[in-house]
Please model this.
Amino acid sequence: MNKFAKAVLVVGLPAVLVTSCDNFLTGPKLTTDPNRPQLAEAGQLLVGVQAAQFTQFEGLLARVAAMWTQQLAGTARQHLQFGQYDITESTATSQFSQVYLGGGLIDVMKIEDITDSVGDELFGGIARVWEALIVGTAASLWGDIPYSESVGGVLEPSLDGQSEVYAAVQAKLDTAITLLESGQGAGPGASDLIFGGDGDKWLEVAHTLKARFYLHLAEADPANYQLAIIEAQQGISSPAGDFTSFHTSSQTEANIWHQFDRERAGDIAAGEFLVNLLKSRSDPRLALYFAPNDDGDIEGAGPSGTGSESPSNLSAERLDPAFRQPIITWAENELILAEAKFSVSGAAAAKPHVDAVRADAGLGPLAGAVTLQAIILEKYIALFQNIEVYNDYKRTCFPVLAPAPGKTAIPGRVLYGVDERNANSNIPDPQAQPERNDNDPNACTGVP
Amino acid sequence: MRQKRWHPIGLAAVLSLLSAIVAAQQPAAVAGRVNSVSGTPLPSVSVFLDGMSIGALSTEDGRYTFVVPAGRATGQTATLTARILGYKPQSVQITLTAGQQITRDFVLVANPLQLGEVIITGAGTVTTREKLGNSINTVRADEIVRSNEANIVSAIAGKAPNVEVQSTSGEPGSGSYIRIRGPKTIQGTGQPLFVVDGVPIDNSTNSLTLLEEQGVSQTVNTNRAADINPSDIQSVEILKGAAAAAIYGSRAGQGVVLITTKSGRPGPTRYSLRSSYSIDEVNKGIPLQRSFGQGSGGVAPVCAGPGCRVSSATWGPELPSGTQTYDHFNELFDNGYSSDNTLSVSGGNERTSFYLSTGLLYQDGTIKGPNNHYQRTTARLKATHRLRDDLSVGGNIAYADGRGSFIQKGSNVSGLLLGAARTPPEFNNQPYLDSTGLHRSFRYPRPNELRVGRGYDNPFFVINENPSDVRVGRAYGNVNVDYNPNEWLGLKYTLGTDYSGDDRIEGLALGSSTQPQGRVISASFTTLQLDHNLVATGTRTFSPNFGASLTLGQNLNSRRYRQIYAAGFQLISPGQFQLDNAVTVDPDEFESLIHTSSTFGQATFDLFDQLYLTAAVRNDGSSTFGESERRHWFPKASAAWTFTKYTGDLGGNLTFGKLRAAYGETGQEPLPYQTLSAFTQDNLIDGGWGPLLSPTQGGQGGLTTGNIKGQDALKPERTKEFEFGLDLGLFKERADLGLTYYTGRSEDVIFLLPLPPSTGFSSQLANAGEISNRGFEATLNIRPVTTTNFNWEIGLQWARNRNRVEDLRGAEFVPMYFGNFGQGAAVKGEAVGSHLGFDFVRCGVADASPADGADIAAVCAGAPNGALYVGADGFAVLDQTQRIVGDPNPDWTGSLRSVVNWKKWQVSGLLDVKQGGDIWNGTRGALIFFGTHKDTEIRGLETTMGEFYNTPVVGPGANQTVTIDQGWFQGNGGGFGDVTSTFYEDGSFVKLREISLGYTLETRWLRDRVGLSSVDLRIAGRNLKTWTDYTGIDPETNLAGSETSVRGVDYFNNPQTRSFVFTVGLNR
Model:
């Protein structure tokens, strides 16, 4: 044996042994991901959708809506700026994205595909209600949005007009209602954290949601009031049917308002306007919504963070980690009926609905005249912390709010997220974006 | 019978025959002495027979002697070469005849240009300096030791042009970042490959946060190369360009740092004990005001009673004279100290050599309290044994035990400086617990509840109550076999491994503001790397004018990473930081496995003893590449021409001249599993505000579609670089000059190509970026005096790099990391890492238009570019479009080094210069908002925007006088407004990195009575002085840690330190 052959044997053998494994570059943990699942069931996706959307409906958008409508006030750091409408296209960029990303439309549509393929109509109906809630809310805030081309392989989805989106949402809800009325299939069961798969409750929510979105279009076309009445009459029939978020006291299941208070204590506080309004009405909800400050008083701050040395925080109840945030409620349904009937049939038809909501809050019947302003004020209070309050304000300009000092108007819409604009040439630059959405042709003057 | 007599001639013949036989069986003896030109004996010179692996080292008196076994002294001619670092090697031809005594003396000439010295070029290949066709910087042991840095990465700072080093903070155990010839990647770590004794090692930085948020909050982290004891290092070779690093293929995209540890040498066993002790102090702080008190609108807050919450702002009344105020920065720090001891034993004989060392480093940081320290214990054994003349085996084992305790920092309401620097001057942060043991802070001065947030933690609470402990165990090393079956062929096999376990416990006590209910994070990071490298090199000198070599190699590498992380919330018992003590636990687990398989080859040609050509190619396959992109080629070629061999030495004024040109390609492999789309259990977050929900709720398992779309055709990033250089030895080698120009283009740069979120995905990895880097590097070394007793050396280095993002395939910009510090980005046409942010509306900025509807073009007519638009109220106005507001990349970097040796004395110094590079002083921005920054002392100032910002102005309120007060500082004039551009500052600095005075004691008394050959004494300063215009802490700072490529972020970073160091070295 010559020296070279020996060298090969002595030194090369380990090399040969190692390379003789054919699959050195492929195989488990090399070309499959040990960290992320490749498959998901419809129920698992639904839980994810709920977590994402609870975050959405209780997060920045809700805080901004509450600050702009002066239910709350930004009192420190960035939220002091947001409360005075100093926002950029970065401010709500994650929120715009969350409409579509995992936990948003992409997963709702996957649930629909999975449930349709197995004929689970109950589950399919519920998924479509979620889709309508997500897309309709997005249309109310951003106006024209990508929808017909979104989440479908189109590289740069184009904007659909806001009215087309609302029409598509109504059609989606019609499909949902058909499916829910059939009620075939096993449904989501416990993975539906809101109603445990109760199709009847979802059916009511679907109708209330239809009514809500008709109302969104009523400023431009009052004919929508009649459509809203028809839907709301089949809507949520009692507070037991309220669509509320689900939370527990566990760290990663806690209410977002609670978490925000924990992470950013002092950045937001009670709004002066709402506090004074509740005080003037001796409304028992004052203490339900807000906590006394160090002096034992409930005080609010104005939109520039001033007005009170120590404005109140949210109440302990509202900051409870397990607090289930109302999103679509019986009270909203009643007040939709009130507003729509007021417009179609007059004050008398509206009054029972207003009084029902007041009674539920522990108040006597409305003493003064039933006016649109009175109805919206009731809704403004009843839907505390709900993004809908901002939609109502834009439509009706009620309650009458003075814009933040130095500002001429409360913004009419939210800017598209910079993440979307950066990658989608269909999205105009911030300067080229409209000041208000099509469903809201009239600016609020701040004068009654 | 006649007595038979020996025939005398016959006898003589027999005797001579016998003696010849005996002689033939006797070895040949080779001996002599080695002196320097000045006549002093040179010890430790290796005198060896080339190709025979036989030889010896010279002793203290310069003598050497060795024998050649009879069987190998066959009358042949052999080359005897004497070599030692710092002198030119010298060879003589001798004839080896058995039984003969051969005497050869050498007189060695100093070799400041290091010609003929062996340079390690990676993957088992070596060459000599004059044959090198590309630039490789070498940092030697004495330079590393003189830096007095515990972290080998920091020790390189200022020692090689275009090798930028930045330590994260002055805290013990903090990591260091290194960048070679500019950024070439966008979302990768940008850290070079580290190789120790031929085996790649892990230099990642484990962190309790995601990579993209690394360093933003929580604590500093140690980069894993810091596990190496710098005293064990013989030399560091930095392969900077793609041509130099191509031999490492797809792992060398950011360059390669080759570390060679010390080896034993034949001769008497040497003992060395090096002990240093240093005193450390914070070198630069944050300017704070001491004149105005807590409150808002000039009104002090009223604390109504126990549990009151008071204003976080310091916009209260002017403090009456005589009010006790506190220095909220300096009260947190005192002197730190470190001790560093390394004991080494080395030696061996002709067949066996060893180096054994153990080191103990202990650093107590400058932050007060018991939780700011780092300890590193290391042990290393490197040994080789020649089994046969043609076969040797070696082993190389190192163990490191690292233990650290770090302090919360950064954007973190439980961070040290965030709460400290926001504290109103009149509030005494001590004691941090009130009489009932509750945590008190300026926003919650009369605590009456334990489990509620304090707004910001009292800094002394942070120091004392929130421990963050790290325990690292690391074992790495290799076994190797060297086989030289004949004179022209060598085979080298190395099997290396690197294992580390990094255990963390991080506690936030009850009543901490981040987690009022308390939190414990328990995490463990495990890495295992196996590396198999087989190289065969054939070398042949065909004639004096033509030599060639061919190297073929194979490499297999496996890297496993595992992370187990669990956060426990709501502590049950206050002081116990363990998961069992938490009400809820949120676990997270991650693992990855990467395999690469490579083959490589290199051919060299030496022509006419002056032209050296090298060509090499590596073929890499990696499990991280897409299925259709499984294997890739990385070529290189270089030429070096020592033209002075052709022209002569021009009268001694140009003794050496070399022109070199090189081209190479290197790669950066993608992260694992990026080829797949998948579902995720990641939390759903409320933007960057902190709140989040797990996708699993109420006991129901949940999943969401991951935001990143899989990319099944992913391939490595590829850098292609040309390099040209000139190396000159001037004025009889009294000076040498090296010039290098390079121009490189990094293609297929991987980044998350943003997708419109409306597609359902926010991004998809793509090989879609192109980045260019080009620059100059110059080194000039001057030796004005070189005499036996007096030596003076001056070294100058200068480098600049110009970086540009050439293409992002349509994307306007790519963010480099997220959270509320989303500034770092790659923007087309700009340097990588430029910061995005918001500015005021200014003239000449495309599409800037004020919200008040003014026609900016008309208003700006005739005004200079950059003029500030001032609204009707007299204030500047937010420009709503995100733009570039800062570039953290320096314009140039340089250093000046000088060493003077006079007899036994040595004086040395190193000045490090960074020119340019913006830093976002977010600390100042925030403190201006809160009214504690020194700059807010001007509150109430009546001025105009033009005066205030010292800039031309236009617009309706251009010359209107406004009051700069709380309103402005809490709006767009402060750090929580949208405008970030006003807090960018020039981060240039000149730093006295090192200065030292040393004395070597060598006396007969020491040797005879104490038994020591020498004693080294040294006093030194580290970072003693920084000259800078930066107004915050030392500008050598970065919030983002040692791995993230985002640079230039200062947001309540913990400060840097300077040190006074005393060292004693005992040698035997």
User: Anything to note?
Assistant: Chain B has twelve helices and 55 strands. The two ends of chain B are 72 Å apart (CA to CA).
